[in-house]
Automatic annotation (TrEMBL):
GO biological process: methylation; tRNA processing
Naturally occurring in which organism (per UniProt): Christiangramia gaetbulicola
Functional note: Specifically methylates the adenine in position 37 of tRNA(1)(Val) (anticodon cmo5UAC).
Places the protein is found: Cytoplasm
Catalytic reaction(s) noted: adenosine(37) in tRNA1(Val) + S-adenosyl-L-methionine = N(6)-methyladenosine(37) in tRNA1(Val) + S-adenosyl-L-homocysteine + H(+)
Name by which UniProt lists this protein: tRNA1(Val) (adenine(37)-N6)-methyltransferase
Enzyme Commission numbers on file: 2.1.1.223
GO CC list: cytoplasm
Domain Methyltransferase small span(s) in chain numbering: 44-133
Length: 248
């Protein structure tokens, strides 16, 4: 009974303050990771062009459309159902004229675009990399895992598409942070900011939000705690996502 209730809930549109997202055909449902990344990513340099890699429902691209005046917001999604859903979510939003979704693999997209387009902001809530996460659901696994888009390929491709002063922002498991920093350094990308995310003050660090750029400077490092207790959110988390969640 409880399982079917939650399943039905996830089929409903997810309503944010300025847009809503249908996710019934998308293997990767909306989660905190995507919302965190879309809200955390810095728009201080007012990017004119943005690329969201592995867009899923289109959540992060829509968040950045709400937050910025970027004229070009491209999204990339390989899984067909998710791609179609992202297109629909873009079209029904207020920013459909600035949003475009490509149905392609990242490797072919990089090959096609590296001489054509540079992006001021590249952003990705990428697959997790551990085999332990295999679910048996093919669409979900394709959306989620290393054999779909390895971290090395993601970082290398981003380095080829990023403008000189642009930044590349990702959220990954904290266990992958050091690996990501080493791969990025091989492609002349360096951390500008790292935010390590914990569920509560006493819980272990779960995620790393990292913003990479070509400037090799000492990174700004901080920590974000999401909850004081169950559904009792910290002021920092509420301030970060208040423009999106209806209940905050």
């Amino acid at each position: 009974m409880h399982n079917s209730y939650f399943y039905k809930m996830s089929q409903k549109p997810f309503k944010f303050k300025q847009f809503s997202i249908d996710q019934d055909r998308c293997a990767m449902k909306i989660g905190t990771d995507g919302v965190l990344l879309g809200a955390w990513s810095s728009l201080e340099h007012q990017p004119n062009s943005i690329l969201d890699i592995g867009s899923g429902t289109g959540l992060i691209a829509l968040m950045l459309a709400q937050r910025s005046d970027a004229e070009l917001i491209d999204a990339l999604e390989i899984e067909e159902n998710a791609y179609e859903q992202a297109v629909e979510n873009f079209e029904k939003s207020d920013w459909g004229d600035r949003l475009f979704c490509y149905h392609a693999g990242f490797d072919e997209f990089v090959e096609e675009m590296q001489d054509e387009e540079e992006y001021d902001l590249i952003i990705s809530n990428p697959p997790f990399y551990s085999e332990d996460y295999k679910t048996g659901n093919e669409n979900r696994d394709k959306a989620r895992f290393a054999d779909s888009l390895p971290l090395t390929e993601l970082i290398e491709g981003a380095s080829l598409l990023l403008s000189k002063k642009g930044h590349f922002d990702i959220i990954i498991p904290f266990t992958e942070e050091q690996n990501a920093l080493e791969i990025a350094a091989d492609h002349m990308l360096f951390p500008l900011k790292i935010t390590r995310v914990k569920g509560t003050e006493d819980s272990p660090i779960k995620r790393s939000l990292i913003s990479f750029g070509f400037q090799n400077t000492a990174p700004e490092i901080d920590e974000l705690i999401l909850e004081i207790s169950r559904h009792n959110y910290t002021e920092e988390f509420k301030a970060l996502v208040k423009d999106f969640y209806l209940k905050l």
